[in-house]
Design a protein that fits this description.
The chain has helices at 27-49, 56-69, 83-103, 107-121. The protein is an all-alpha fold. The longest helix is centred in the N-terminal third of the chain and has 23 residues, at 27-49. The termini are far apart.
Length: 133
């Protein structure tokens, strides 16, 4: 599964899923992310209820404060790998995964083989005798 921990129902993986970072989080990491997002949305709703006007810069500052208070480490730099390099890597891994999946026999192939073998076991129809003149 290319290291992915989250997939669509039925285990289906699509190309666009490969470049979504949260699809590689563990169950615990995903629960933490969901809780942080929920709490931050609640905070945003409180701000809206009190009609407190905030700019995008205000939201960035509040998010950093929120993460710091919750004991999360802030990323203060762009990192070592660009988003474009990450996306290219994810897409190349998906291509390898897809090639592997496509090379494996599918259930329909096995069903077809089974049907062919069953047909081979059936008695052959007798050829009709030509009519006598």
């Amino acid at each position: 599964m290319m290291g992915m921990t989250t997939t669509r129902p039925g285990g289906i993986i699509r190309k666009e899923d490969a470049s979504i970072a949260k699809n590689y989080l563990s169950e615990e990491e995903l629960q933490v992310l969901n809780r942080i997002v929920n709490l931050y949305i609640e905070f945003a709703e409180l701000q809206a209820m009190t009609r407190k006007q905030m700019t995008m810069q205000d939201w960035i500052i509040k998010l950093d404060e929120f993460l710091t208070i919750s004991g999360r480490q802030l990323l203060n730099h762009a990192g070592n790998i660009s988003a474009e390099i990450n996306k290219d890597k994810a897409e190349s891994e998906y291509a390898r995964y897809k090639k592997f999946i496509d090379s494996r026999p599918r259930v329909i192939d096995a069903d077809f083989e089974k049907a062919v073998n069953e047909l081979k076991k059936l008695p052959r129809p007798k050829k009709p005798k030509p009519p006598e003149v």
